[in-house]
Amino acid sequence: SMLLAHPIKLQSLLSGMLRKAGVRLLFGAPVCGVRMEKGQIHAVQAQFMGEPFEIAARAFVDCTGDAVLGKLSGARCFAGDGAGRFQSVSMVFSLGNVGLCGFERYMNEVINCEARPRWELYNCATRGCLGQYWLPWKFSPEREKLPGSIGIYWFGNEGELFFNVTHLELDCLDPFLMGEGIAALRGQADDVLGFLRRSVPGC
Questions:
Q1: Which of 11, 31, 59, 128 could form a disulfide with 152 if both were Cys (CB 3.0 to 4.6 A apart)?
Q2: Distance of alpha carbon 40 from the chain centroid
Q3: Rg (CA), the chain
Q4: Across the strands, what pairs with 51?
């Protein structure tokens, strides 16, 4: 099963829940080091606007998503699947003022007219990525330079769709490759956005 939640609304909801529980939130303050004492983390070192500071506590939980705190403290870590393969790097962008009925009708009557079951917006988070469905550029001569798979997400907001441009395989631990990858994904996103605006009804 998949939990669908609008990314901005989810951030607001979770932040509100944390504040209500008495959690003090720090944004824009990445962890950059640790101070160890007797083999245990005594304080986490972070930076805000270029100024370092420390947070001392009795216990720390690594919720970075990338084991940053564990790695800095010398914990045993492995990257990816352990064999050098990483999850594809992706980029999500939103498109507003979309005629959702027109978009869904185009996807069914022109692009996926032979598909069963129908391609539908309410569950396109899963269907948008599966092989039995063609993407909006099925008949376009531009399709060779557009992604071979994307995610299309609708979170219930009228006129708003999210697109996940994906499938850039690279070593995401290399900052220079990540920089090049993000630049390439922005180019892909711009190509997808341009195609949708030019060629797809409703967009």
A1: 128
A2: 33
A3: 21
A4: 48
For each of the chain's 203 residues, which pLDDT tens digit applies?
455 678 888 899 999 999 999 999 999 999 999 999 999 999 999 999 999 999 999 999 998 888 899 999 999 888 888 787 887 788 888 999 999 999 999 999 999 888 777 888 876 654 444 567 888 999 999 888 888 888 888 888 889 998 888 667 777 788 898 899 889 889 989 999 999 999 999 99
Q: Is 71 exposed, middle or buried (0-12, 13-18, 19+ CB in 10 A)?
A: middle
**Residues 46 and 56: beta-carbon distance below 8 Å:** no
Residue with tokens 């798979």: 149
* Distance, first Cα to last Cα, the chain: 29
